Here is the input.
Amino acid sequence: MMAKITSSLIELDRAADTLLPLTFRDKVTKQPIDISGADIKFVVKSGFTLIPEIDPSNPLGRLLHFTEAHAAQLSSKAKPFMVTRTVDGMDQVLWRGEIVAVGFTQ
Here is the structure.
């Protein structure tokens, strides 16, 4: 299942795994940036950290694979998240937003 994304809100379904392709474009040239080998993390505040997988359908991107267990850790109230890239020991924030889970609760 694909995540529902509205602006910077990611909505996960508690009843299924969710795959979210992760790509970035250069702000000036609008060309895709190769993040396939980058040290990237998806961090949910007071929640979990997810390391993106290699995306088999996009050699320049990564793939966020949220399991039902990840969704179960979230409530129906949105939590802040950020995607970071570590370069020379320093974290650079690439994207901020909120994440929420919908559907049945456990």
Summary: The first helix runs from residue 68 to 72. The chain has a mean pLDDT of 87.
